[in-house]
Amino acid sequence: MRPPVLDLRALQSLVAILDTASFTRAAEQLNYSQSAISMQIKRLEAELGTRLIERGSVLRPTRQGRQALGHAREMLRLNSELRQRVAESEVAGRVRLGMPADFAFYLPDTLTVFAERYPQVETEVRTELSDALVRSVAAGEIDLAIVTRQAHSPGGTRLRREPLKWVGAPGSAAHRQEPLPLALYPENTCEFRQAATRRLDAIGRAWRPAYVSQAFAALHSPVSAGLAVTVATPSMLGAHLEILDEDATGLPPLPEVDIAMHRRPGRLGYAARQLADLLVERLRTTGEPGASVTP
Hints:
It is a single chain. The chain is of the alpha/beta class. The protein contains eleven helices and twelve strands. Helices cover 43% and strands 20% of the residues. The strands form four sheets. The protein has a five-stranded mixed beta sheet, with helices on both faces. It has a three-stranded antiparallel beta sheet with strand order 10-7-11. A two-stranded antiparallel sheet has the order 1-2. Strand 1 (53-54) and strand 2 (60-61) form a beta hairpin. GO terms for molecular function: DNA binding; DNA-binding transcription factor activity. Residues 6-62 form the HTH lysR-type domain.
């Protein structure tokens, strides 16, 4: 014979009583009458066959009550989680997210989690350079944009900060060439390029744009072949690239860059707000394995 199922409302009352050390305050908290909450505890104790609360000048759990309290908290948590998951599965609509192409490569885990939580939400990802994305989100063309914060486009929610480093191929002598051959993003679109060229100009080091592309993947090839030097964050490095020692190469130190999230003007829809919260949680607190930033 199956044992009877315990009443979650009675477990909720048990938690409230022991948390507040008062039947009266627990009843007020749960919007029950005191007689109703007392009856719930009596039925719960009868079903479990033991006293759960020591009634005296101070209410406290019995030994069995302490054990029941831990299980009650977990059952209530699971109840809330189930309700939330069912509610989330009913959320529908579309979210438009923008990010640089190189950054999009590092977000599949986050987008997978979001898709599992909200299977009826369509996520549209647009890849452009940060400068264009900031304009798009300001115009309301996309809901969210993850970008490298530019000097001329500040604001947004800062997700993380990463250092910029000079990068080359192991054993390459590209950094000794005059003028210095650089693999760069297009002019006036990239904080990485601005930071590098300003620092080089400040120390009087001649340079030339040897390779120009909007994607780090395209710049990777000439740099890994020893034909040029580029600028990246440590987490962007893949095979055949290494950080160049500034003291050994004479290259100037570079600043840090901020990765920020911009939201379109006005109130975001529920799905867009949930994706924004998930991105903040994963990129600000833990990031993703290998997560990088791009201009």
